[in-house]
Amino acid sequence: MAPNGDHPPTDFRHVFKIPTKGDLRRKTLQKSADLHSRPDDDETCVYLCGNSLGLQPTLTRQYLDQYLDTWATKGVFGHFTHINDSSLAPWMHVDDDLVEDMATIVGAKPSEVAVMQTLTVNLHLLMASFYKPTKERYKVILEGKAFPSDHYMVESQIQHHGLDPALSMILIEPPTDSGVLPTDHILSVIDRHADTTAVLLLPGVQFYTGQFLDMPRITTYAQDQGILVGWDLAHAVGNVPLQLSDWNVDFAAWCTYKYLNAGPGSIGGLYVNEKHFHRPRLAGWWGSSKSSRFDMTNRFEPIPSAAGFQLSNPSVADSTALRASLDIFKQTSMKALRAKSLELTGRLEVLLKQSEAKHLFSIITPGSKAERGAQLSIRLQPGLLDSVLVRLEEEGVVIDERKPDVIRVAPAPLYNNVEDVKAFVHVFGAACLEAAKTGK
Amino acid sequence: MAPNGDHPPTDFRHVFKIPTKGDLRRKTLQKSADLHSRPDDDETCVYLCGNSLGLQPTLTRQYLDQYLDTWATKGVFGHFTHINDSSLAPWMHVDDDLVEDMATIVGAKPSEVAVMQTLTVNLHLLMASFYKPTKERYKVILEGKAFPSDHYMVESQIQHHGLDPALSMILIEPPTDSGVLPTDHILSVIDRHADTTAVLLLPGVQFYTGQFLDMPRITTYAQDQGILVGWDLAHAVGNVPLQLSDWNVDFAAWCTYKYLNAGPGSIGGLYVNEKHFHRPRLAGWWGSSKSSRFDMTNRFEPIPSAAGFQLSNPSVADSTALRASLDIFKQTSMKALRAKSLELTGRLEVLLKQSEAKHLFSIITPGSKAERGAQLSIRLQPGLLDSVLVRLEEEGVVIDERKPDVIRVAPAPLYNNVEDVKAFVHVFGAACLEAAKTGK
Ligand SMILES: Cc1ncc(COP(=O)(O)O)c(C=O)c1O
Ligand SMILES: Cc1ncc(COP(=O)(O)O)c(C=O)c1O
To answer: Fewer beta carbons under 10 A from the terminal one: N or C of chain B?
Structure first.
């Protein structure tokens, strides 16, 4: 996929719904219902929060309308009927229809990718296939500051096997206050538990620090010691270039509501390396051969691909929203988006370092471009956060906070631009200075 | 919930999108794109397929539009912001917002119900909590003609524990050709395996025969012998009256795309009896206390209710579609709907038995009203099915077939009426006679 030769377009701002500042200030959907107004109400807001919830493609409503029209006019036949004036696949195939474009984004063979369920559930399902503790190998290594759901997931998987998390759950704690995990540090923990570890699970991009881990090196290193390696790609997918197949990752899972813009809680994705297609699994009819699925024979014939790990018929509404999103990604490439992303985030870093308020915060995300994605995480001096957040909100600048003192700022290459970055630094710097002055 | 005193309304046909016959014949969504037309193109079709996919409430599009407007104008703030001119809850609460109305439909305490994930996944998650095989009790009893996904689910759960389905999976086979499972037959299988069985899983309404099992009697009988009892309510929810709490069911799960009209693959539901709130589970952040969910402490504090079994943030699109559906159910009661349903299905049975073609088919669904829901399953004489299906489709009559010789016909009380039932019997009878005459 390299549409337009070597220079695919990367500016898709015009095909996204970017809230205006007035939209954000109103407590209503309708404009007319509003009383107060301000001169900048019609300006688009500065939305740097695609790491939490990506914005809505304009295509989404069009496609959901098509879906609703199909349901309204075809009823149950929507499952099988090919409709001439619809861009959508029959519901029976909506998930398959997404796989190729999704695989391109994560650098995988289409057969190794399935679009299904949600992130935490997919991690559980994958662990059910990959985490088979023995007397020799029973530990799971993950980070000590993992996203809570991943922590609970691993902890409960260990307990499910009757093992004790105190002995079997190995937490890699960041060696310094920044929260960053140096690769050597990760490898040293692997070394320490090499003989007793069954699975290593790490994030491609860490949610808090924005660190992009050295996925190929860590994968190979752990596999060489007999460990299976899985990745949580919630913050990596659609953000950084991934080559899951080349890196020989064992398994991975992700969500689609961040950089993939498929909407809150939308359908997730997973990767199973083809060498693992035969693994035991928790099975469901949607993973059984399509040709015999409706024969009702009760003989499970797993589809010989990641699709064989599917369980239920997928949400058509969510698959449709994801279709709208992937139709944008299709027009460009992760390589081109990454180039733009490095530029935007690089510019953000430079401007922050030049800010008059620079003594009031520090960037905890790694300074090396290879070690980060779109997001910079910024730690404020103690006591500043609350009033800085008030000011950012007043000015229509949307970022994401992690109490007590960190904000995460992520220019999404599909819809953000340099103006967003400048506007953020301008408002943020002033807000920090003001907060410091008023002593709060 | 008994709106309008003892006589809540039961005719909601006008708030559903019923395809016209022309809609079904066209291979397009747009009318204009069509060339051929027939005089009955604008008549509503005869849709008796709510057991497979329920029709779309007109509210669904309105609510999905509100959801898309919220995402477009509030971005990530949609998670928390209460919007004055929207009927929808902030996304953070969309699932909770559904629980009370869902609980009313299944006859449960709201604390015992969660709206989450999809059916097969929910069954796996429940089995992870409830199926804890020991040396003494390790079997799972289910029907031999279970819906394939349930069969694969149980089989793979047994294998997951390192056990052999040949020894641990007990299949209740129907004693006669009809496929119906007499209660005494079920109880006798329970008796045979009483000491070694951990879990009994049965369908509330059987998908193929339409039989409504004697849930309270079977539940109590099995529990008295120390067996945990779970129910697959895919075909029961929104169809027959359920009293999960009173019946002291241990657990249950269902989908929402059949009688609940929430759209293909929409979000599912589950029931956990309050006595089981403490059970171990496969955990995720969405099941951890709301107040500390974003503290990132990595201490799992399960919500002390069925919500504690949640894993991922829910699909807002699907939750929104379900909201539209439950806003209809709220205006009536399952008692009133059941009364109408008994009437419609009773009428269907009478008319079929009076049909001139009655020698060409038999009804396999139990004749007793207490033992069935909306659906009648009809077995045709060998060789008739294919041409009968062609004729039904031509006439805009939508039912569901199970090769080689069964059709399932389900008047849904919310939107079907006596005219639908009469029209079906009329077309079906003629189609059978014609098929028999032409020798195929
Ligand atoms: C009785 C029964 N069980 C399980 C399923 C599987 O449902 P899902 O694909 O939502 O997991 C169905 C689907 O129709 C069903 O009817
Ligand atoms: C890194 C990471 N893991 C897991 C999750 C949980 O996702 P879900 O609620 O879709 O299961 C998130 C959600 O933001 C996340 O960022």
So the answer is: C
Task: Closest CB to B283: pick one of A55, A79, A153.
Answer: A153
Q: Do A317 and B64 touch (CB under 8 A)?
A: yes
Length of chain A: 440
Share the mean pLDDT of chain A. 96
- Which of A163, A313, A375, A393 has the highest number of chain B CBs within 10 A, making it the mutation to test binding with B? A313
B211: DSSP letter: B
Q: In this structure, are residues B402 and B368 in contact, taking their beta carbons and an 8 Å threshold?
A: no
Burial B116-141 (b: 16+ CB within 10 A, else e): bbbbbbbbbbbbbbbbbbeeebbbbb
Nearest CA owner, ligand 2 atom 4: A149
pLDDT for B4 beyond 90: no
The residue to which tokens 């469901």 are assigned: A284
Give nearest CA residue, ligand 1 atom 13.
B234
More confident residue, B36 or A430: A430
Q: Which ligand is nearest to the CA of A400?
A: 2
Q: In what order do the strands lie in the sheet with A406-409?
A: A361-363, A376-380, A406-409, A400-402
Quick one: which atom of ligand 1 is closest to the CA of B123?
11
A and B: number of Cβ contacts within 8 A: 305
Contact yes or no for B317 and A280 at CB 8 A: no
Contacts of B69 in chain A (CB under 8 A): 29
Q: Which residue among B84, B148, B297 places its CB closest to the CB of A298? A: B148
Average pLDDT over residues B312-327: 98
Tens digits of residue pLDDT in A108-155: 999 999 999 999 999 999 999 999 999 999 999 999 999 999 999 999
Phi, psi of B141 (to 5 degrees): -100, 130
**Per residue in B165-182, pLDDT tens?**
999 999 999 999 999 999
CB-based contacts of A436, cutoff 8 Å, min separation 6: A357, A360, A381, A384
Between CA A213 and CA A195 the distance in angstroms is 23
| Rg, chain B, Cα only | 23
The predicted model scores a pTM of 0.97
Over residues B39-82, the pLDDT tens digits come to 999 999 999 999 999 999 999 999 999 999 999 999 999 999 99
d(CA B427, CA B331): 33
On chain B, the residues whose CB falls within 8 A of the CB of A86 are 29
**From B84, which residue of chain A is nearest by alpha-carbon distance?**
A28
CB atoms within 10 A of CB A108: 26
| Contact status, residue B102 vs residue B355, Cβ threshold 8 Å | no
> Read out DSSP for A228-239?
EEEEE-TTTTTT
Strand partners, B254: B269
**Per-residue confidence at A34, pLDDT binned at 50, 70, 90?**
low
